[in-house]
Amino acid sequence: MQTDHFAQDPRTNLERMQAGDLYIADDPEISRRQQRAVRLAARYQAAYAEDSDAARPVLRELLGFLGEQAHLRPPLYVDYGSNITVGARTFVNYNLTALDVADITIGEDCQIGPNVQLLTPTHPLEPQPRRDKLEAARPITIGDNVWIGGGAIVLPGVTIGDNSVIGAGAVVTKDVPASVVAVGNPARVVRSL
Fold it and tell me: Cβ(122)–Cβ(101) under 8 Å?
């Protein structure tokens, strides 16, 4: 028998999700927003194949904010898109997966390599709540002028400081200060810049 985790909580699952609390992703509005993101990401990829400049309005519709001269190469995989901010002059290479259950903020003048994953969702460690499909999310913040190498993974709740470099294939499990190089799994600071 499944436990009613929200018996005393009148909020919808969408409201719990937006507050950063545990929720279950069975809210019809959550599904509608996810489908919107899938549809817009597909439209962006198709339009980009014809004319990358003409595709920009679709990308603006998908994302929460797109800075001037920012460029994202498709395909792009998002949960909602609307919780993603991309700063001016940032370049994102192919195959970004940005699961934006919580906010993902990417600063200005960043370079993000291919196959990078920005993952805000979290799940309980305890078996029963996980079996009950509970989840939550924590925001990711990437400062200005950050370079994230290809295949890197940034986990929920991480902040990467301005001017830092994350090595290719790194798994960033905790905050990275400004002006450093971090590499490995888990990512560790190996030098200052």
Answer: no
Report the alpha-carbon distance of residue 169 to residue 14 in Å, rounded: 33
Known active-site residue 71: no
Q: How far apart are the first and last CA of the chain?
A: 55
Q: Coil, strand, or helix at residue 135?
A: strand
> Whose CA is closest to 29, among 17, 46, 41, 44?
17
Q: DSSP states of 159-172 as a string?
A: EE-TT-EE-TT-EE
List residues bridging with 104 in a β-sheet.
84, 140
- How confident is the prediction along the chain (193 residues), in pLDDT tens digits per residue? 567 889 889 999 999 999 999 999 988 999 999 999 999 999 999 999 999 999 999 999 999 999 999 999 999 999 999 999 999 999 999 999 999 999 999 999 999 999 999 999 999 999 999 999 999 999 999 999 999 999 999 999 999 999 999 999 999 999 999 999 999 999 999 999 9
Residue among 5, 33, 71, 123 flagged as catalytic: 123
